[in-house]
Design a protein that fits this description.
Elements lengths: L2 E10 L2 E11 L4 E5 L6 H8 L7 E6 L2 E2 L5 H7 L1 E3 L12 H6 L10 H5 L3 H20 L15 H13 L5 E5 L7 H16 L3 E5 L3 H7 L2 E6 L2 E6 L1 H4 L3 H8 L1 H13 L1
Parallel strand pairs: 3-8, 3-9, 6-7, 7-8
Antiparallel strand pairs: 1-2, 1-4, 4-5, 9-10
Helix pairs in contact: 5-6, 10-11
Length: 263
């Protein structure tokens, strides 16, 4: 098992943002997290990547406990992520933005770079070449020297994904990768995620486009008010009464059931 979550809880004062969540993610899966706004999905990601420390529970990555580790240490173990809001260096080139994703994974120190030592130069060239390959993978070959802020919204999302991939993570976390995209752009991101999985990276994604997730993911967990209310294959999730209630509301479900009974 690549990732095993055992009863993690996160509280902010009296607010319980995530409550006693357990789940498992297998190597090679595309795993979806869905749920209404405020359900705790991004807080869950923040615990996986060390931004928040769980108040309770364990996070095991390749059987190694990682809860409470600093984000850079978790990244070194092979977990990388994107964010809901695009976080690019807008005045830097696309290539430079992707190369930043290798920060903390290179071996040459600060003084090596300042003194222009051969080891630092060789390593920078390797990072540059790896970044070019990742840009080709995400469909941005030829955009290397463009400024990040000159790209379309969809391509900026691709740059962010490339930056997360350049460190060759074992697990990639995508926080709403298709937010703000049209149907064609969304389909292209789906194809890219399949390609990422084919290259050996396991993917967990948060997404509000439920129909898209159902056709993409091997396994889906559903959060509501900080709790995991379902965890199963898409065919089971889509018919789960608790999931339907979480999305359209209890009163609407009861109204629909009453209408169906009287029809």
């Amino acid at each position: 098992m690549l990732l095993k979550i055992e009863g993690i809880t996160k509280r902010f004062g009296g607010l319980v943002a995530v409550s006693d969540v357990s789940l498992q993610v297998k190597q090679g899966e595309i795993f979806g997290l869905i749920g209404p706004n405020g359900a705790g999905k991004t807080t869950f990601f923040n615990m996986l990547t060390g931004i928040y420390k769980p108040n309770e529970g364990k996070i095991l990555f390749e059987n190694q406990p990682v809860q409470g580790l600093k984000p850079f240490r978790i990244a070194k173990l092979g977990i990388s992520r994107t964010f809901q809001n695009i976080r690019l260096l807008k005045e830097e080139t696309v290539l430079e933005n992707v190369m930043v994703g290798m920060f903390g994974k290179t071996h040459s120190g600060l003084w090596s770079a300042i003194l222009g030592l051969r080891s630092a130069k060789n390593e920078e060239e390797i990072v540059r070449e790896d970044s070019r390959k990742i840009l080709e993978l995400v469909g941005l070959k030829g955009f290397e020297n463009e400024l990040a802020n000159s790209l379309s919204y969809g391509n900026q999302r691709r740059v962010e994904i490339a930056r997360a991939l350049v460190s060759k993570p074992k697990l990639l976390l995508l926080d709403e990768p298709t937010a703000g995209m049209n149907d064609e752009e969304t389909d292209e991101i789906g194809k890219l995620i399949f390609k990422i999985r084919e290259n050996g990276t396991t993917v967990i994604l948060i997404e509000h486009n439920v129909g898209w997730v159902m056709g993409l993911c091997d396994q889906i967990a559903v959060f509501d008010h900080g709790e995991k209310i379902a965890d199963d294959v898409p065919e089971v999730i889509i018919t789960n009464p608790e999931v339907i209630e979480a999305y359209i509301g209890k009163e609407d479900v009861e109204r629909e059931n009453e209408y169906a009974a009287n029809s």
